[in-house]
Amino acid sequence: MAGRIIRSVKEDIHPCVRCTALYTIKQFSKNLKPEFQDQYRDQVLPALTKAMDDFNYPRVQVQAYSALFEFTSNCTPSILNPYLKEIVTKLLKELREEKHMIKGETLKVLSAVAYSSQDQFAEYYSTVMPYLKVIMMTAKKELDHNLLADSVDCITMVWMAVGKEKIRDDTDMVVKMLISLQRSELEANDPMRCQLLQAWARLGKCLGEEFEPYMSVSIPRLLRSAKIGSYVLIPENPDSVDESDGSMRAMILGERKIWIKTKVLEEKVAACKGLYLLADELKEGLSVWIEEVAQTLVPFLNFQLNEEIRRVAASAMPVLLKSSKEAIQKGNLELSDESPFEKLCSDVLPALVKALSKESLPEMAAIILDSLEECMEMSGPVLDEDQTDLFLKKIMNVLNSRRKVGDIDVIKQTLQEEQKVYDKAVACLATFIRIQKPSFSPFLGKLLPCIQLMWEKDKIAKERRTGLRIFCDVAKQFPEEAFRQYNICLLFLFEACKDENPEVLEVAVQAIGIFSEFGGSAFKSLLKGAFYALKAVIDHPKALQIEYVMAHDAAVSALGKLLQFHREKLNAAQFLRTWLRHLPLENNLNEAKVAHHQLCSLVEVSDVELLGPTGKNLHKIVTVYAEILWAGKKLATEETVSQMIKQLELYRRRSIPSTWRSFMLSMENHLRRKLESKLSS
Fold first, then answer.
1. Which residues are in the Importin subunit beta-1/Transportin-1-like TPR repeats domain (predicted)?
2. Average pLDDT over residues 160-189
C-alpha cells in the first residue's frame, strides 16, 4: 500500500490525487515513525524532492513541503545524509524566491532537516545563515511576525544542530533582535510570544555556561510567561463564544464547561519547557534562579488543564534538586539557617507525592514515579507521616489493581502503559523503603498485608514475584520487625518454591537467602523447611533447562547463606556436600560471584567439613576453581580469582608431584591448560 501511494506522488496524474498521496505520506511519517522512515526512505525522499519542484501546482508543492517536514522531523542523520545536499540546495533556492506561501513551509522544513541531520549540517551553515538573517530582519522590518517567528525558529534549530563554535559570529545580532522584541508590546496572539521563549531556551541549550550573560534578560521573561493567567473563560452566555478561529477551545472540567484561550496556554507551555530546558543544561549555573524556577513549576505538578505542563514540571523536579545540591557544593548559593537544598526537598517531595495521588493518566504517573524515585535518592527521608501514608496508599493501589492481559476492552497500549507504571511503582517503593528507613517502621503493618495479597495463587506470576521482591526489600531494612509482624511469610516462601513459574522460583529462593542473612533468631526455627524448599528447586526435574537455571543457581547460592549464617544449627557436612556438588554456578552471574567467594573463603580457613575426611573433596574444589578460571571474570570478582590462584599454588606446592600430575591429567584438556597457564604466570 505504501509503495503504491509513493508512486502516485511521482506519476503525472491529477494534482488532487497527488495531494492526497502526499497527505497520506505525511500521516504515515507522523504516526508510523520511525519504522516508516527506516523502511521507505529510499522511495519517499526522492519522491518528495521531485514534488518540491512542481511549480505548476502550488498546492502540490505545499503538500510536498509539509510531508517532507514530517518525514525529516523523525529521521536519523544516517537516513538524511545521502539526500542532504540536494534537499538543502532546493530549500535555499526557494528561500531566494518571493513566494510567501512557500517561504514559511521552506523554513519549517529547513529547521527539521538541520535538527535531524545534527552535526552533518555544519558544512552548510555558512551558506544557509546569511539567507536566514536577511529573512529575519526583513520580516521584522515589515512587521510580518508569522515569517519572523518561522525564521527565528529555523535559526535556533540550526544553532542546536551545529553547536556553539559555529554560531559565535551570529549570536549578537539575533540576541539584540530578541531583546528588542521582548521590550515591545507583543499582542496575545502574536506568534513571536512563544517563539521568543523557545529561542532563549534553545540559545541556552546551545551555549551552555556561556549563556550566563543572557540569563538576567531571558529567565525573568520565561518566569513571567510561565505564571501568566487569564487563560480560562467562563462566559455567562456560552453560545457567544466563537471557536471558529482556533483561539478558544472548550473542555469539561469536573461538571463545568470552560473555554481555554489556546494562545495564552501555548505561551505558558513554551515557558515551562524553556525553564526546564535551561535548568537541565545550565545545572548549578542556574544558581540564584533555582528557587524561583522551582516555586513556579512545583504548583504545575497538579495543573489539570494541560498534560504537557504536568509532564515538564514533573521532569524538572530532580533536575532542580540536583542543580541546587551542586550549586551549594560549588559555592554558587549562599547558605542561611536552612539549606536551600533541604528547603527545596521539603517542597518538592510532598508535592510529587500529592501529584501522584491525583494523577489519572498512566503515562504521567510513570513520569512522576521516575522523578519521585530520583528525588528520594538525593533528598533522604523528608516525608512526614501523612505524606508517607498517602504515598503507600497510591503505590499499593497501583500494585493491587493491575488489570490482567485477558481483560476485555483493554487495548494493548493501555496495558503497556499500566505495566510501565506497575514496574516503576515497584522500583520507587524499594527506594522509598530504603531511604525512609528511620521513619518507616510504623507503616509495616499497613504494607505487609497488601504484599500478602500479591502472593496469592490467583495472581499472575509477575505479581507474585513482585510481592516477594518487595518483601525482600522490607526484610533487608527491617529484619526483626518484619519477622515479628509477619513470620508466616516464610511459609509462603516455601510454598512459592513449588511454583511452576521459574521467575517466581528465582525470587522465592533469593528471598530465603536474604531472610537467612537478615532474619536473625526468628529464622532459626524454620531452617529445616528452608533447606527442603531450596532442595526442591535445586532438584527440580527441569532445573538445568534454560528457563530454570537462574532459579537453580539462586537456590544453590541461598543454600550457601544457610550454611554461612546458621551453620551451628545444621548438619554442616551434609549441607556442604550438597552445596559443593552443584558448583560452579554458571548462569546467574550475580549469585555465582557470591557463592564462589564463599567457597574461596571456606578453603582459605581450611574448613574441615568442606575439605572432607583426608581432604577427599579437594579434587572437586580444584575442578570447580578451574571451571571458574576458564570462564574469565564472569563467575568471580578479581579479588576472588586472585585468592583462588594463590590457594591453588599453595596446594600444588604441598602435594606429592606424582599426585598432582595424576590429578591434572584427570581433568578435561581445556581446564588443564587454563589451570597450567594461570599457575605458570
1. 60-220
2. 87
